[in-house]
């Protein structure tokens, strides 16, 4: 297989090859992002939780009441995606780099990479080599890259969700293992998630057991993180980064002109007019326009959006303990927004502050309607 490393250069030919190589890399990244990081790890992975919860948990069950806001509109938006976005000959196949192999790529990634225990943010960062476990460090992690906005802000959201869920679980299960293992509806829900929702992974040893309040709280925190914050992080910045297609082209239509075996005519054409060669590599006008329109829709918040920790989805009933815990959750998320605003003004954080740098706001919990590049809806709803 042909391989070559391209680097920035003062040599004109090498400089143009560097630009074209970046386009290829970003096109491949766009395909992986859309089909694995976004579609597979959020939209698809949440479906088994929704189906199992509605089949096995009564509407009055406390776990159902906790999870219900995080399932809003997901099945509907997934059905629409399967009819227009990820279907054969659909928008993804016609405009993104994997083309007709898109669903195969997503399926193989699920088979080889997806693990429930690795979908929790701390475990995800460790698996990707972005952090190491360190009990003495903040959040219990030592970062490989200290200025990593997704990790730095995401862990604030993760901790807030974890605190709320632990308080909720302790209200109904009171640190008693028997109350968890003896909850037949809860155990039936988790059994269906593992054995039917993820049937081809049902025998995997990494599935957590719902055998005590602590494991139940961690499992529910992971589900909420994926449905709300993980999806927000990979979805609502798409128009900002990909709406201007040269910044993140969705597909590379031509090969690198020096790829072996070298086509002499293609190389000569590149040397004669590298600007035209780069434009031919970019998405076509139709592809670029279609992707821009889709990313604009996907990155938009609806006027009736329900946000993580928002008071519009405060727990029902008059349980003062649960309501007090949710109010603390809401207050904590508001405080987190202030921390993120300060980080975005800190010039020492060069990945989120500086000339030409887009402030990192994807983990800010609340937003106005429209394309804002911030806001964490409760659910995977767009």
How would you describe what is shown here?
This protein is an all-alpha fold. It has one domain: Lipoxygenase-1, domain 5, CATH 1.20.245.10. The protein is 56% helix and 3% strand. It contains 15 helices and 4 strands. The strands form 2 sheets. The chain has a two-stranded antiparallel ribbon. Strands 3-4 form a two-stranded antiparallel sheet. Strand 1 and strand 2 form a beta hairpin. The longest helix is centred in the first third of the chain and has 45 residues, at 12-56. The protein is globular. This is Lipoxygenase domain-containing protein. Its cofactor is Fe cation. One of its GO terms (biological process) is oxylipin biosynthetic process.
Helix-strand sequence: HHHHHHEEHHHHHHHHEHE
- What is the count of structural domains? 1
Q: Strand fraction band?
A: under 5%
Radius of gyration, in angstroms, nearest whole number:
23 Å
User: What is the CA–CA distance across the termini?
Assistant: 39 Å
CATH topology: Lipoxygenase-1, domain 5
Pfam families: Lipoxygenase
Cofactor: Fe cation
Protein name: Lipoxygenase domain-containing protein
InterPro entries: LipOase (IPR000907), LipOase_C (IPR013819), LipOase_C_sf (IPR036226), LipOase_CS (IPR020834), LipOase_Fe_BS (IPR020833)
